Q: What sequence folds into this?
């Protein structure tokens, strides 16, 4: 599980398109939970990502392979309904979005470290090793 630090988080709720209510959430650490996926029907899909802000959790992020060879990228939660695209979560700060994406990719890569049956080195092997 990875994490991203955050200073202050402001949530904005709109009522009647005139009044806005701001909620200030104190400094929090965002925990990233990764569920790797191996789906033949969706070959570009690599993992489902969940962000845990402590006070609330946001599901629906996905980590995908770029169609254009750019590597992995984080897709925000969204829904397509009747041909209309609706994004549930939007990050206004480009630097924070990059940090979030980087942390999600690192968490995914950590989850996919292969486990091998290679035996551990003994002390005899390490005597001549420069490490």
A:
């Amino acid at each position: 599980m990875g994490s991203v630090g955050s200073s202050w988080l402001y949530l904005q709720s709109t009522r009647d398109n005139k009044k806005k209510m701001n909620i200030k959430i104190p400094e929090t650490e965002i925990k990233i939970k990764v569920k790797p996926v191996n789906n033949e029907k969706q070959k570009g899909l690599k993992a489902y990502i969940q962000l845990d802000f402590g006070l609330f959790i946001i599901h629906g992020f996905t980590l995908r392979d770029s169609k254009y060879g750019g590597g992995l990228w984080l897709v925000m939660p969204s829904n397509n309904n009747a041909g209309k695209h609706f994004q549930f979560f939007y990050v206004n700060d480009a630097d924070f979005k990059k940090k979030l994406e980087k942390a999600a990719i690192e968490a995914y890569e950590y989850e996919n470290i292969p486990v091998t049956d290679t035996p551990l080195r003994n002390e005899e092997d390490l005597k001549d090793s420069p490490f």
Summary: Helices lie at 94-111, 123-127.
